[in-house]
Amino acid sequence: MTTVASFSIDYVQHLSPEGQLVGDKAPPIATDFEQLKKLYELMVLTRVFDAKAIALQRTGKLGTYASSLGHEAVHVGMGAAMKYEDVFAPMYREYGTQFYRGVKMSEVLLYWGGDERGSNFSGPKHDFPWCVPIATQNLHAAGAAMTFKLRGQERAAVTVIGDGGSSKGDFLEAINAAGAFKLPLVLVIVNNQWAISVPRKKQSGGQTLAQKGIAAGLPSIQVDGNDLIAVHAVMDEALKRARSGGGATVVEAITYRLSDHTTADDASRYRPQEEVENARRFEPISRLRKYLMSNNQWSAQQENQLLKDCAAKVDAAVEEYLSTPKPAVTDMFDYMFAELPHDLAEQRQYALEMENNG
Amino acid sequence: MAKITLVEAVTMALAHELEHDPDVVILGEDVGINGGVFRATAGLAQRFGEDRVIDTPLAETMIAGMTVGMATQGMKPVAEAQFMGFIYPMVDHVISHAGRFRNRTRGRMHCPLVIRAPYGGGIHAPEHHSESTEAMFAHMPGVRVVIPSSPSRAYGLLLAAIRNPDPVIFLEPKRIYRLHKEEVEDDGEELPLDMCFVLREGKDVTLVTWGAMTKETLEATDKLAEQGISAEVIDVATISPLDMDTIYESVAKTGRCVIVQEAPKNCGVGAEIAANLADSQGLYSLQAPVKRVAGYDTVMPLFRLEKKYMPSVDRIIKAVNETLEVS
Amino acid sequence: MKQFHLPDLGEGLPDAEIVEWHVKEGDQVTVDQPMVSMETAKAVVDVPSPYTGTIVKLHGQPGDVIDTGAVLVTFDISEDGSSQNNEESETATAKNAKTTKQQEDIGELINELEETLPKVAPEVASPPAAATREDSGTVVGQMESSSKVVSDVSTIGNIKVAPAVRALAKKLKVDLSQVKATGAGGVITARDVRLAAESGHAPAKKATPAQQSQLPLEAAATPQTAVTTQSPPPATATSIADGQWQQVKGPRRSMARAMAQAHAEVVPTTLMDDADINDWKPGQDITYRLIRALVAGSRAEPVMNAWFDGKKLAIRQIPHVDVGIAVDTPDGLFVPTLRNAEKLGPKEVRAAMNRIKEQVRNRSIPPEEMKDFTIMLSNFGVFAGRYATPVVTPPCVCILGAGKLRYDAIPVMGGFEAHRIIPISLTFDHRAATGGEASRFLAAVLKDLALPE
Predict the structure, then answer these.
(1) Is residue B289 one of the residues assigned to a domain?
(2) Does residue B204 share a domain with residue B172?
(3) How many domains does chain B have?
(4) C302, C303, C381, C296: which is closest to C341 by C-alpha?
(5) Residue B23 has pLDDT above 90, yes or no
(6) Is the pLDDT of residue C222 over 80?
(7) pLDDT, tens digit, 9 for 90 and up, residues C172-183
(8) Among partner residues C141, C152, C210, which is closest to B150 by beta-carbon distance?
(9) A139·B106 Cβ contact <8 A
(10) Domain coordinates of chain A in residue numbers?
């Protein structure tokens, strides 16, 4: 008997939880402090925004909201590695990536505030909107990647999926397509250990989730998702591979969902508080801050100023959101088709009459 | 001018758009070198290349999801579901995304895509190869459903579907794929969507139908004419959105309406047409109840019973006579 | 006896030519035995025997072209049960036959396990379409196919056009009669219609009724048209007195009969009064108001909307109101029925009246639409006549007549006013209703007619 195939999965980490560079030769970004500070500021802004959004929901000013607490390094790391002309296909939590690409905070709030105009967001027009049906965005990203390939463009598609979502058919069909068609695609499994109340070990019998990509013939790798430097490095390599015709990559980013699944969830029902507290020790922002400070690139004063600036920006965004007038009732109809068909025109008229007479 | 069958008209339309619009690609299982299991894409991969006519892995959800993705990025993908019986894994991407992207993003993104599938029974096929579930798609907002019934209409309507900036589910009645030929010019002229076509004019009863049932309906019309009953025959063609005006106009003239559908009766498209007639001035034109001659609300039987399931010429004539007996 | 029909030997081939028979009439044959070689448009195909039995008749000679589906061979089936084949599915037959042969050949096949199945031993004729594999054009099942060329171009007037192009013209509001046809045989193509639409030189005439979504027949309405249609003067004069006896035919004959019967059976009594319509808001449809007034009267006195059977001395009050409306034409009197008047609003009544008038004009009104009315209306006063004694025909109980609209001087407090008046005459069958009932009916009619709208 001979072995015809075997696999191994590497785990990449450059920044330890204590904020020290570790492991193999550090990537260029590790010493690009200007860039790192910008990314740090964005991570903090995302977290401040996130806390505010939860508060808005709790005070009845926002609908159900999915927090990104703890995911800031994965999200900002992905965004920073992407180019404008690449395409991003999110689920519904990746605000850090989207803010980097130009989406406004008020647009995120509009979306969770129940207003479709939030999905007509700033930033690249080719980016996909938030996607609720699990893993379907992976196939959309595969389609976008196929478009780049057919047109011979040097662009890549990046899509995310959760540890839970990686069980879904759409994800598996997407990685299969990525391998079969050699697509310029990067699939990022954001393994935050929880799919609502189902823990990672109930989700799959595989030792890692990254190795699902091996079955599809894709380079597959694990990375410490709380380590901004490692995330950026791994994404950078995967995107370069994709854009140069080398095909797709599966990246499993290991992190932890420090918040509830959404504001409608109460995680204390299914996981012990000690586990969350323990996970907090590994969270991404404090470790990057320690790294910056130990390299004399950041101070407590700058931190205070940053928090003030972030609060102001977030408040401005909230103000913009709250003062957005309600959508017109005709908006329900006017974006169904390029031209309104006859039967919908009648219904639109009726809705308008009910609105005016009611 | 070519004398071609309905399936050849599909090929002709696809070829025309592949030639004139570089954004059009075809994707599906066995569509490339094999030309499709019904030869609907015969010769196209050879003529336009495997990058324009793409053989995909066996994964319908993947086909639908990628089609959505490609469409949002500016391509005009024409996907094929090999049979309507296998379209169900695509339904999620149609209802959750294709019909929604324009609305979801307030026009920032949209999906100019077509999903084609051979549909309907009567070809002695194994299980699952004879489905008629067009009503399922008709119920989805943001999605058009188009069913041609002749070679010339297949050509013109498929052109229109491909060129339309919004999603179209294009269901091809496979029982009449090769029923007969028609002269169709490859002139790139599309036919209007969202409209019914009046196939025969008449004054005693309006027969409303679509797809392969136009065959039996026209045969019934000829038989009725021998009895001195003149039937007006309407081919709905675009199932959703429905052109009720043509139907109202006809029923105002005849006062009687019989709907013929191969699909199961319960909540089928015929129910929507009948409800619209009742919910409008059409009611006052009616001199008899609207009748639906439809498939039974059972699973489509395997082929030894399939002729008993599908509406026959006799069942259509019987329904017409029932409307005429009511004064 | 079993008939074997020539199967479709390939992708929708319409026929095949007999090349050579391998059997003759009277031969005993076993299933799968080589029977005949047929030449199609594409290749020569060997057709094996579908049955075990005796060849009774061969339906053609070498060189003959046989249509797909036509009888090729008649068999006399033996009793060994090999007639399991049913004629619905020749391919199923071939498959059954192949399986039997495989079972027999198992011994030989053991040596050929590595080779792809199904493999047929050389001495047995290959099943249909296996020798040269025709493209069946499908992976499953079989579909009806033919090379017959059809066209659904219809010629109406002198316009030749396919239904889809006709629909396109309607959508683009193009008048087909003004479109130049460039298709073969004078057919108007979609491009012709599009060109006409763009150049704007073939616009559809005023909005046809079809384009209005709510009310198909609304457009032709004129609100205050009187019920009775006066047709334009006939092209050919019919009223020259030539002194000859002419048989009374058609509607005139019916009228003569109906009136005679009414005279014989009904005991008519007529009440007359004036309806003061001075308060009417503009745009009232007289026909609709008269009909609505009848409905109001029927609610007040249901006995007036009833049928009376003089022989059985029975009366049947009817819950709905079907109005028989007297329509005058050059050919005579027609009384079409307006059904369920109690459910109709002004637009529906107008639409129905238009349709009725059209059908009466075209003589396309079916007989069942001129019977079973429950109450009658005659707007006789279009030209002249105030009051009348209109005739109620059995089994109806009453008829309302409306005379010529006029202005009259009406005393009011402090003087006189000129009011618009419709003179009303109500004839009822005194066998069925009392004077009081008729009078109360009339009061309700007048009250409804007086309402502003």
Answers:
(1) yes
(2) no
(3) 2
(4) C296
(5) yes
(6) no
(7) 889 888 888 888
(8) C152
(9) no
(10) 10-327, 329-358
Interface of C with B in 188-247 (CB under 8 A): 189-191, 194, 209-211, 213-217
**pLDDT at C134 (0 to 100):** 58
- The average pLDDT across C410-419 equals 89
* CATH topology (fold) of A10-327: Rossmann fold (3.40.50)
**Catalytic choice (B16, B93, B97, B129):** B129
User: Would you state the pLDDT for residue C118?
Assistant: 39
CA A159, CA A142: separation in Å to the nearest integer? 9
Number of H helices, E strands in chain C: 8, 22
Give tens-digit pLDDT for C395-408: 999 999 999 999 99
Going by the DSSP 8-state scheme, the letter that residue B181 receives in this structure is: B
- Do residues A218 and A212 make contact, with C-beta atoms less than 8 angstroms apart? no
**CATH code of the domain occupying C250-450:** 3.30.559.10
- Contact present, A193 and A258 (Cβ < 8 Å): no
Judge whether A142 and A152 are in contact, CB under 8 Å: no
Q: Find, among C74, C69, C80, C8, the residue nearest to C41 by Cα.
A: C8
CB C218 within 8 A of CB C212: yes
Q: Residue B129 corresponds to which tokens in the numbers above?
A: 């190869």
Could you say which of 3.40.50.720, 2.40.50.100, 3.40.50.2300, 2.40.30.110 is the CATH number of the domain covering C2-110? 2.40.50.100
| pLDDT confidence tier of residue C133, bands split at 50, 70 and 90 | low
> Can B129 be counted among the known catalytic residues?
yes
Lowest model confidence (mean pLDDT) among A345-354, C36-45, C64-73, C423-432: C36-45
Question: What ipTM was estimated for this complex?
Answer: 0.83
Residues B312 and B180 in one domain: no
Encoded tokens for B102:
């324009």
Of B136, B129, B193, give the one whose Cα is nearest residue B161: B193
What is the pLDDT at residue C139? 64
Tell me, yes or no, whether B21 and B154 share the same domain: yes
Same domain membership, residue B118 and residue B95: yes
Q: How confident is the model at residue C1 (pLDDT cuts 50, 70, 90)?
A: confident
Q: Which of residues 61-90 of B touch A (CB under 8 A)?
A: 61-62, 64-75, 77, 89
Residues of A in contact with B71 (CB under 8 A): 143
B151 and B218 together in one domain: no
Are residues B151 and B11 part of one domain?
yes
Percent of chain B with pLDDT over 90: 84
B37 within some domain: yes
| CATH number for the domain formed by residue range(s) C154-205 | 4.10.320.10
- Measured CA to CA, the distance from residue C412 to residue C430 in angstroms comes to 35
